[in-house]
Amino acid sequence: MGFRPDLFHKYKHLGLIDVHNHDADYYAEKGSIAIWERYHIDKTVLFGSISEPAAMVSDKRSWKAYTKYPEKFYPFFSGFSMYDEGALAVVKEKLEKGYYGVGETVAASTYSPLTSKLQWKAQHPMDGNLPAIYELCAQYKVPILLHIDPPFGEPIDRLKEALRAFPDTKFIFAHANVYNPPERMENLLSRHTNLYIDFFAGFTVYDPNNQYALESYIPLIRNYSERFFLSTDSATARNLNYEKAINAMYEVIDLCEDEAIGEQIARRNFLEIIEAQPATRTQIDLIERNALEYDMKAMNKRMANELIIANKLDER
Ligand SMILES: [Zn+2]
Questions:
Q1: Domains of the chain by start residue, with CATH
Q2: Can you spell out the DSSP letters for 30-71?
């Protein structure tokens, strides 16, 4: 496979969601929104720096971006210490405020030159504050996006432990196809129904370090289509840019040769997780204090956020 410009047009009706993007600190300078619009990315899960103190600034920026473009972004956050117990209050506060998920969180990293040195990375997926955070994720019905490298050995054994111990938590394995063959992903997917896959197509198609053909993942994606998402990871790989990273996402959809599966992995799977998140106590209090009219029963977190943003309650 390779670059297929015809696919941008062929699949523009899908309204692609990029579930893994680090542009929070510079999307404006980079002109990211215009690029995404050109290639028909409808929404983006946004964060910036991850698992280090700088992420606290990025988290504020991802929220700010969301209040400016509520139709474009789903803000996530990653700025919390891994070992200080006080960090749990930070996580809870962010979830209450209206963030849609935790991550990207470094749950283990040995080989990645970018993530292995981060101050707030965990040693393995059951380390430090992570178990308590999984519990909060279940409570708030938000997913957690985990970076885990290497994708085998102890880090994966401990991921399995987490998947078993927190069956109500939705775990998203970040760029799970990076240095990871479909057989190993199948092993996890077949045993753990609360595991979801962030498929970073641009890496598989363009990075010279990749060893596994895009085609080799397609049967797996078709078999577990309700648990796959697509992402650009901000086009962070060798020989990659947004045009190619997004084109590779469409290549996956095209290779699946099934309209319904294409819709699932492009958009619907992720949308379902977002729309199932209930409004939080903090959101409801803010809305009630300002005497806004709303239908409590029908309102989820996303609708509450939109109401709060439209009325500029967030800025007070
Ligand atoms: Zn990333």
A1: 6-277 (3.20.20.140)
A2: HTHHHHHHHTTEEEEEE--S-SSTHHHHHHHHHHHHHHH-TT
